[in-house]
Design goal:
Blueprint lengths: L2 H15 L21 H14 L2 H21 L36 E2 H20 L3 H22 E2 L4 E2 L2 E2 L5 E2 L8
Helix pairs in contact: 1-2, 2-3, 2-4, 3-4, 4-5
């Protein structure tokens, strides 16, 4: 059993069957509001190519990977480098079905989500490396630049000086939501 083949097949399934016309990867059953979902196919593609050196597959899939990544570019609505969730993350705004911006918990989070943006940073770095493997230096520089901007904005936006921790998210109203998240920290 080839783990690499399973990663490729799974990644293709998510790209071909669970990505909307707007570039949103749909998580779980029909949740189109998980900010972290688009990171999975990008990171998995890097894992697959890194382990197999299958540049033919990458050449066929690079446009789909860029399409998925561009959703994140559009979601940096205030152009500060961090990608915003569609949920505000403001207190009292927890409503089904879009109550959470990430798969791992069903709490009221959104705005500038620490967990999702950490994954987005990794996804953009992976995509930049994939672009480099194909000799596509302009897109490589673009995704590297997006990752660099996100990294530069991350701690200033999420660091809570009262606790010394990174907050789980910063809601649209500017409030830090610091619940001592070990996942983010």
């Amino acid at each position: 059993i080839s783990i690499a083949a399973l990663v490729r097949q799974t990644d293709e399934w998510w790209m071909d069957h669970r990505t909307s016309t707007g570039g949103v990867v749909t998580g779980y059953w029909n949740y189109k509001t998980f900010l972290d979902a688009n990171s999975g196919p990008l990171i998995a593609a890097w894992d697959y190519v890194e382990s197999t050196h299958d540049l033919d597959w990458l050449t066929r899939k690079i446009s789909q990977l860029e399409f998925i990544a561009e959703y994140y570019v559009r979601q940096d609505v205030d152009h500060d480098g961090l990608v915003e969730a569609v949920q505000s993350g403001n207190s009292g705004t927890l409503h089904q079905p879009a109550r959470s911006c990430c798969w791992w918990d069903a709490l009221n989070c959104g705005g500038k989500d620490g967990y999702s943006n950490a994954l987005i940073y990794r996804a953009w770095r992976c995509l930049a490396d994939l672009e480099s493997k194909l000799g596509r230096m302009k897109p490589q520089a673009r995704y590297t630049g997006l990752a660099d901007r996100l990294r530069a904005a991350y701690a200033p936006a999420l660091f809570d000086p009262k606790t010394g921790w990174l907050a789980g998210w910063k809601s649209a109203d500017g409030r830090l939501h610091d619940y001592a998240s070990t996942v983010v920290n």
